[in-house]
Amino acid sequence: MHCWFFTSQVFKSLPGKALVGNSRNFHCIKPLLQSTRHRPLVETITTLRQNLIKSLGRDSVSDTEAIRKQHSRDEGVERHNHLADLVVWPKSTEECSIIASLCSEKKVPMIPFGTGTGLESGVCAAYGGVSVDMSKMDQIVNFNPEDFDVTVQPGVTRKGLNHFLKDHGLWFPVDPGADASLCGMTATSASGTNAVRYGTMRENVLNVEVVLADGRVLHTAGENRRSKKSSAGFNLTNLFVGSEGSLGFITKATLKIYGIPEMMLSAVCAFTTIKAAVDTCVQILQSNIPIARIELMDDVAMDMCNNHNKLDYKVAPTLFLEFHGSEDSVKSQAKFAGEIADYNGGSEFRWAYESEERNRLWKARHDIYWTTLQSNPGCRAIITDVCVPITRLPDLITQTKADIQESGIIGPCLGHVGDGNFHTFLVFNPNKPEEFKKAETLAARMTKRALDLNGTCTGEHGIGIGKMNYLEKEMGPVGIEMMKSIKKTLDPHWLMNPGKIFLSEY
Ligand SMILES: Cc1cc2c(cc1C)N(C[C@H](O)[C@H](O)[C@H](O)COP(=O)(O)OP(=O)(O)OC[C@H]1O[C@@H](n3cnc4c(N)ncnc43)[C@H](O)[C@@H]1O)c1[nH]c(=O)[nH]c(=O)c1N2
Ligand SMILES: CCCCCCC(=O)C(=O)O
Ligand SMILES: [Mn+2]
């Protein structure tokens, strides 16, 4: 198996089991957890496997290498190739609780697995252990259309839920580009293009059921509670939003849902400079137009988007906008936004009412990562995800663009400018370490800039392994210490998804 990894330092093989697989230029993109943790011993895994089969049935447990590989990485750039020792599929909260108890008894790591569309290596098996694939728990367990809430198990994806909801004139608007599991989206505090109007997962999760590392079951807002708001004690629900599998298994999520708007109007508008485009975004938001989504794609992204999708948009910094509401309200919102765009030199406005045309436009935006890779065959990309206060965005993106242009690296800038959150895809050839080094340096410089501008290293993709280094700077020592003391309370043996989020254990 040819696999390649990159390092700013030579990979430190972990104590315990030898690394699986041979590879040229074997490196690791980030220093793994500096810990004395060992992978589980073979005999421990053998006994655990027998106990799991006894409890769950043979069809719910696998140690096949191909299945372990499939569960040991996500859609982000590869950071190492350690494999989970086992993969299990719980069919209920009770079975998930049994898995947690059996693994805890043997002190074996557990990694919740949703649909593997994460980007920061959140599901990879840094220290072996058991990958717990939640996909067989795939029911919509409680639907209250009149109260605008629904409760789903972890195998339900966002498109699956919307397919169910649409016949009721309802939808769930948080829309990462992938068809991710809703509990995985909860675990990474995911977001998407609709966040400007509808918020992120953080604002749309009312309650979660969690199986803790020792098998206990927790309902973070109280069992079956689904009020839109509550001030009853600590907000345990939001403790698990963004926990990235490090605090427990999310086995149910109660979500806010919304009426499908009477009308959705999309528009595309080109600008002469990135600054003009982003200034337009800031002014639209400051004018309090209740815009649903506003996304930026720079000239590099537009060029690849046109070529890949046979489109003919202007190759220039472009805003993708969408307005939701009654026909009158949508038209007046669009008119006002159009005037602001004109003021900033916007041109080539193209409107789309029909869902087919709108979906085509937004698919081009959602698929831009794959478009970038397919436009640069054989390459990979470091994906950045900084988020800053909206007024800081124009300068940050302009400086980032200048750095990328100076570096010679291909690096489209795009994303959720309505939230102050944007991405670059810093493309590099895996056989040219100097390109990787440039991409990594650009990512580090951009992230430092965002942190210096009172922002964050990750607006929506989470920390995983990819951003462990940045979290320490972002949160400071007391913040990290507080997070670890919470983790120690919930997972005293550090068994839930070890090797992620923190550079060191307790
Ligand atoms: C093409 C494309 C486009 C996008 C994105 C990906 C891709 C491939 N993403 C990233 C990704 O879709 C997002 O991080 C999802 O929340 C991941 O959900 P999965 O179910 O795939 O989780 P996945 O299986 O990848 O796991 C992610 C993390 O959550 C944990 N986890 C998963 N299920 C859990 C459960 N039931 N209980 C506890 N922990 C659990 C895992 O342990 C891991 O740490 C994204 N993201 C975004 O926010 N905005 C965006 O716009 C996009 N766009
Ligand atoms: C497969 C990687 C997707 C890159 C970034 C996805 C995202 O957050 C977005 O497009 O927005
Ligand atoms: Mn995004």
Automatic annotation (TrEMBL):
Residues 80-260 form the FAD-binding PCMH-type domain. Keywords: FAD, Flavoprotein, Mitochondrion, Oxidoreductase, Peroxisome, Transit peptide. Pfam families: FAD-oxidase_C, FAD_binding_4. GO terms for molecular function: D-lactate dehydrogenase (cytochrome) activity; D-lactate dehydrogenase (NAD+) activity; FAD binding. Its main location: mitochondrion. The keyword Oxidoreductase applies. It is found in: Mitochondrion; Peroxisome. Its EC number is 1.1.2.4. One of its GO terms (cellular component) is mitochondrion. It is an enzyme of class 1 (oxidoreductase). One of its GO terms (biological process) is lactate catabolic process. Involved in D-lactate, but not L-lactate catabolic process. This is Probable D-lactate dehydrogenase, mitochondrial. It comes from Daphnia magna.
